[in-house]
Amino acid sequence: MIGPGSARRYRRPIDQGRIDMNQIGKAFLQGLATVLPVTLTLYLAWLLAVGAERFMGGAMRLLLPEGYYWPGTGLVLALVVITGIGLVVRLPLMKLLLRLNDAVFRRIPIIKTLYSTISDFTDFVAHMQDRQDTGRPVKVRLWDEVELIGLVTDPDPALANNTGEEETHRVLVYLPMSYQLGGYTLIINRNRLEQVDMPMEDALRFVITAGVKGGGEKSARAPRKTRT
Fold it and tell me: Which residues cross the membrane (predicted)?
């Protein structure tokens, strides 16, 4: 005969099983969060390396005598070619040719949208180190107690029509969105910005993950007024 005491005795294994399943689920998610970024990064790097090896390696096999080609030669050649192109485009004649090429691609319907997006982004990344104020993380004060984190993309944009006055000077700030490939571009008075003393990569990671991964007050020191 099963009484009230027997029912209480049968509850413990069920509750204990639930606790174990919760722990297993948390361990699985933790393992996934650890393995997935490394796996995807290595996979993308492998795809790029294999693509470069296949493309350049095929050309090397046609040019080199049989037996002189070693696996990986195509990848090394691709790196050398890309670096060489980066050096050659600094020449005045190549800059002129690139401007003509850029003008042609920006006039082709549909193609110009894709080309402009990729070209502007790569140009921003390539010249970010040369621009002291470009890519600098800032806090954008919208209201008294509401702030957003963004990146200064242009300290003196043409659309701002700045007159040289300190109090009315406006800058271009990009506000990325969390868990999305998108954002907003603001032309805003720099008096409403506060500089965040943290690397751009940490600021982007903090915003894109909505503060779940990295950044925050532990990574950022006390903000100070922005000077652009």
Answer: 27-48, 68-89
